[in-house]
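User: Um, what's this?
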Amino acid sequence: MLELAARYLGIGIKRRSEIFSGHKLTVVFPEPTSLAVSRYSFYEEGLTRMVLENVKPGMTFLDVGAHIGYFTLLGSWLVGSGGQVHSFEPTPSTFEVLRLNTGQIHNVFLNQFAVGFGAGTATLNDYGPAFSGYNSMYRARMSEEALGRVKVTQFQASVIPIDDYVVQEKLRPSFIKIDAESAEFDILMGMEQTLNSCRPTVSVEVGDMDIEGVIPCRDLVQYLVNKGYRAYEFDGDAIVEHQLRERYEYDNILFLPRN
């Protein structure tokens, strides 16, 4: 009923939910991530398993595209008191929900920045509370028909490269999760030094939608393979070695350093 009401009224309705670890999370109906967490107590099984299997106590976890904080909260639980989580979410309204969910946790550090190749500012698209997971500096990863029914506004956000942030905060990241709605390659270009010196595990959202200015996901995957990483995917049952494809549907690919 809350979902239907939110859709009918065109607003976001906040409610408290609980993820599988027992932690409370404020979600915003009718946004898809929020609906999944509310219904099933988790979101994106494959990526959740990747994080559970690779994030350990004492690690430093970077959540790029933190949204409302599901993976920030999960990472905080896994790294424990000896670890840190640094989260990045540029959309003001989404950042406030992220702050509500994780801002009081001692090992979480929140940043209302976009992440990219160079420092500066960027114009981002905000698709409203029902589609906040699609917010990006590029066109939303949705069909033209669906996009035509969505009201979009724009806002300015500060941009920082991961390399700059890592130096600034004196970090050595162990796991970097990247979900930035088509800006993933820009982010990778801004973390080359971190990839070379820290050799973190990396997860990257993929999905070819032929969006102007966005490289094919095959090239993104190949870039990390050329950097000395081995690619893995979730096949519905387990995390298995990934085979390079010509075109990608929506998914998350895990990259483990060879050395």
Q: What stands out?
A: Residues 119 and 160 are 5 Å apart (CA to CA). The chain has a mean pLDDT of 94. The chain has ten helices and 13 strands. The radius of gyration is 17 Å.
